[in-house]
Write the structure tokens for this entry.
Amino acid sequence: MHTPDWVAQGQPHIWLPYAQMKTATPPLPIVRSHGSRLELADGRSLIDGVASWWTACHGYNHPHIAQAVRAQLDAMPHVMFGGLTHEPALKLASRLAGLLGPGLDRVFYTDSGSVAVEVAMKMAVQYWLNQRERGRSRFLAFRGGYHGDTFGTMAVCDPEEGMHSLYRGMLAEHDIVDLPRDEAAMAALDTFLETRAPQLAGILVEPLVQGAGGMLLHDPEVLRRLRWLADRHGLLLIFDEIFTGFGRTGTMFAFEQAGIRPDIITLSKALTGGTLPLAATVASNRVFDAFWSDDPAHALMHGPTFMGNALACAAANASLDLFESEPRLAQAQALETALAAGLAPCRDLPWVRDVRVLGAIGVVELDAIADREALKRRLIEAGVWVRPFGNVVYLTPALTISEDELAALMRAVVGVLRQQRP
């Protein structure tokens, strides 16, 4: 295999994510992307089954997004958001508020999902401080949850999750409990909150799907229970829709399936159609009003350097155009049917624990994966890019993936898993 010069020159200086650099398989050099395809430097083509960590919802290189970014680049790539503003950011804020529905009206921009959750947590804590309530510095979060890799967000992830256990002694302490999946768990959580609520700023959850914690699904009724508990105990409810937002679960936002709204929602990943970094924390008027004051100390003191980046906002507006003009939600719903049928044969394998599907998310849960790198290599040899983690092999393809490519993707997964126990 030919190795490009830029790989040989740069590889000794790069530090890769989630990888033991001494033993990690070298990353694949990609030279071009289009649709659901990744083109390698050696001429091979892979079907991308994970849409670059769930971001490329319209596929790669969609011409409408590319054109919008080029036009914005010519006009103004970026200006600081402190004391200045611009049309792409204000237009996007208005559109997001309209999509999220009544009440979720105030958009705060950041650069990444982790920081969007950090901002949501800061908003929730300061919401109480601005009303002269002290001591509300903890959050209720859930086992199986994942909210980011920064110190604040690590503290509200599942404490047994392997990526963050090394930092346990340095992290803030929060209450991590089981999701109230049934009435008994609901009653127990209600009782717990009777005494704990005065120390809590809010409840934080990934709606319908706990993503990086294991692609764990729960029913919309769980969200309705959490809304009831938040209201009953006077807590803010925060939905982390960084993974689930923008059609991934079959609706534009996962919370729509429960018929309720959060007080704060975080968005990122597919926000720009997988083209540029951008995140948003959107707060209700109830939350924002606690910051509306003549007192400078009541302001939210946060401001990323590239907040509201004009290029990223232009890409996000173009992505929303595509949700309006092309049948993305219908495509997500069709993917649910196809994934359920295509992955069903995995149920017959003795080392498969579960197969589950929601919207454009297909998951094969195994008893264990002894060698994830070897499994990934076999999938690459089968012509697909799939990145297993934990004990799951999952598919989150672009909503625009063709029927033929989706069929080939699922055949590869089923075929590789059939060959031998991973």
Observations:
- The chain has two domains: 5-58+327-419, 63-325.
- The chain has a mean pLDDT of 96.
- DSSP finds 13 helices and 16 strands in the chain.
- The first strand starts at residue 30 and ends at 34.
